[in-house]
């Protein structure tokens, strides 16, 4: 998920076309329990994020004896809605924010639990892009006034306009790639895994400043991964769940409350021919759980620090240790009034200093509002190293450049660093050139241990990947003929 998240709805891709649907179809997961092969098994699921919860839902329905071990005291992992510390029942997302209209698996579950969706982006007013120190207004759905854009572009690029760059330089390739990792991409697509996105754009003739504009901070991402992820952003619409996205994992968790062990941190995985033994710590006390099979959804960034006996195979150990997780810091600013509206702005925006701006309270009644900054890449890394007061000071200063006036209206700031979270250690998987070939190894099982989670799915960095991978692992266990009791 190394996308440039400021790419709004410029050239929507249709959910009905492209290669992505066939990939999604092979992962299409019915919401009826799978057929169990043999007697019920004892299955330990590590992590109660969407992957672990979806796996638990499936296995419980099929009559297995399951336990979900979750280090934190709430379900959902990276789907985390912030409510605490905000006034007037306001809320904002610390993690997963948007659901593309092409993500059928996620949308089916939203529907299954009777949750309501609302649009993520406004269809009116203007966003702001901070480019080389200048605030440029980007009216939604209208061309940008190129005379205001302080970039050194070719005459052709000036004619094309910045809002058409994505389509012009990589729209066709992005649609050939689709939104999901495939193992049967043709060679001319697979080779894009070995070059950076900046290199791809150079080969397409983009000028230095056009590349700068399209990639802010994501120049080194593998071209294939960048465009696969971009597909999900260039959809017809992006939605969010009314009341907060955490209602999705909470809806799963409500069906599983008797089998989730909260506050239970896995410390050691012992796996062998006859079963798996998990050592975990609850309220400071060491405990053990025995299982016939395990579904491990713990992000590799955390798993690499967890003891395992016997050691993972060398190929597995390599990917567990090497997979990169992008850093993200989200800051939620509560303001006494939505002052940017005075300028005809909708609150959304971006900055070439590695962040974008969201307005979670857009269209909501009430005076008070929230603005969010989504810091990534180098800026997120720098923020992660600062003290809280330094960090807040720097974030306010950066936001002032996009939406001047913040300081005057600011009531509180709530920050969340995904890299500093000990149960996540990063936001989502990022593939750099040469790493896509790790994918089969990331997903493959080791004896009785299955791997699920966004990282072990065709949709890394998306809720859809987490849900689909959990369901898939559960179905594979269901289909196993082993009867080990
Ligand atoms: C900043 C950000 C923005 C995002 N934006 C979007 C978006 O717009 N749309 C979208 O669809 N997706 C988005 N995502 C991705 C989405 O949130 C994830 O893909 C998905 O939630 C991952 O689910 P998971 O179950 O794989 O992992 P997680 O949610 O990470 O679940 C893993 C669980 O394991 C637990 N755990 C860790 N270590 C241990 C241990 N030792 N013992 C026991 N438990 C442990 C963790 O506490 C966690 O609950 C975003 C994510 C982030 C961080």
How would you briefly describe this protein structure?
The protein is of the alpha/beta class and 485 residues long. It has helices at residues 20-26, 50-61, 104-112, 155-160, 165-177, 187-190, 197-203, 208-215, 223-233, 247-255, 300-303, 314-322, 377-385, 388-402, 406-409, 439-443, 463-479, and strands at residues 42-46, 65-69, 81-82, 92-93, 99-100, 117-119, 126-131, 134-139, 238-241, 260-261, 264-271, 276-282, 285-291, 293-296, 307-309, 324-325, 328-335, 345-351, 355-358, 369-376, 410-417, 429-430, 449-451.
Give the overall form. globular
Determine Rg (CA atoms, Å).
Answer: 22 Å
Overall structural class, as computed from helix and strand content, comes to alpha/beta
Main beta sheet: strand number and arrangement?
Answer: 7 strands, mixed
Mean pLDDT: 92
Low-confidence stretches: 1-22
Give the names of the bound compounds: flavin-adenine dinucleotide
Strand ordering within the main sheet: 8-7-18-19-20-17-21
* DSSP summary, beta strand count: 23
Q: Strands, helices and their partners?
A:
Layout lengths: L19 H7 L15 E5 L3 H12 L3 E5 L11 E2 L9 E2 L5 E2 L3 H9 L4 E3 L6 E6 L2 E6 L15 H6 L4 H13 L9 H4 L6 H7 L4 H8 L7 H11 L4 E4 L5 H9 L4 E2 L2 E8 L4 E7 L2 E7 L1 E4 L3 H4 L3 E3 L4 H9 L1 E2 L2 E8 L9 E7 L3 E4 L10 E8 H9 L2 H15 L3 H4 E8 L11 E2 L8 H5 L5 E3 L11 H17 L6
Parallel strand pairs: 1-2, 1-14, 2-10, 7-18, 11-15, 14-23
Antiparallel strand pairs: 3-4, 5-9, 6-9, 7-8, 11-12, 12-13, 16-22, 17-20, 17-21, 18-19, 19-20
Bound molecules: flavin-adenine dinucleotide.
């Amino acid at each position: 998920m190394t996308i440039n998240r400021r790419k709004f709805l410029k050239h929507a891709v249709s959910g009905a076309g492209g290669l992505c649907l066939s990939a999604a179809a092979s992962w299409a997961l019915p919401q009826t329990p799978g057929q169990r092969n043999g007697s019920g098994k004892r299955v330990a699921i590590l992590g109660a994020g969407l992957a672990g919860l979806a796996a638990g839902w499936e296995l419980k329905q099929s009559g297995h004896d399951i336990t979900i071990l979750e280090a934190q005291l709430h379900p959902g992992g990276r789907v985390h809605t912030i409510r605490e510390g905000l006034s007037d029942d306001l809320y904002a997302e610390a993690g997963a924010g948007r659901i593309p209209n092409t993500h059928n698996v996620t949308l089916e579950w939203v529907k299954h639990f009777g949750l309501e969706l609302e649009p993520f982006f406004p269809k009116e007013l203007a966003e702001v892009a901070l480019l080389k120190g200048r605030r440029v207004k980007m009216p939604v759905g209208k061309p940008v006034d190129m005379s205001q854009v302080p970039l050194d572009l070719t005459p052709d690029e000036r004619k094309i306009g910045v809002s058409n760059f994505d389509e012009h330089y990589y729209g066709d390739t992005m649609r050939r790639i689709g939104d999901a990792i495939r193992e049967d991409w043709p060679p001319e697509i697979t080779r894009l895994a070995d070059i950076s996105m900046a290199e791809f754009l150079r080969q397409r003739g983009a000028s230095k400043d056009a590349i700068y504009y399209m990639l802010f901070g994501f120049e080194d991402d593998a071209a294939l991964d960048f465009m696969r992820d971009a597909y999900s952003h260039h959809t017809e619409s992006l939605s969010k769940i009314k009341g907060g996205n955490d209602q999705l994992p909470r809806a799963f968790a409500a069906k599983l409350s008797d089998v989730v062990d909260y506050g239970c941190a896995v410390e050691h995985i012992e796996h062998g021919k006859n079963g798996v033994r998990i050592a975990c710590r609850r309220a400071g006390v060491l405990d053990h759980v025995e299982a016939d099979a395990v579904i491990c959804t713990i992000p590799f960034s955390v798993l690499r620090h967890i003891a395992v006996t016997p050691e993972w195979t060398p190929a597995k150990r390599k990917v567990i240790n090497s997979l990169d997780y992008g850093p993200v810091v989200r800051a939620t600013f509560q303001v006494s009034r939505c002052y940017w509206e005075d300028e005809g702005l909708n609150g959304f925006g971006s900055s070439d200093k590695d962040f974008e701006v969201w307005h979670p309270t857009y269209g909501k009644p009430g005076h008070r509002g929230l603005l969010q900054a989504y810091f990534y890449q180098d800026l997120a890394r720098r923020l992660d190293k600062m003290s809280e007061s330094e960090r807040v000071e720097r974030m306010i200063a950066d936001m002032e450049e996009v939406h001047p006036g913040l300081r005057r209206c600011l009531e509180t700031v709530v920050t969340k660093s995904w890299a500093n979270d000990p149960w996540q250690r990063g936001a989502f998987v990022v593939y750099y050139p040469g790493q896509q070939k790790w994918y089969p190894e990331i997903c493959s099982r080791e004896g009785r241990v299955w791997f699920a989670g966004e990282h072990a799915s065709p949709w890394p960095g998306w809720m859809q990947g987490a849900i689909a991978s959990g369901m898939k692992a559960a179905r594979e266990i269901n289909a196993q003929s082993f009867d080990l009791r």
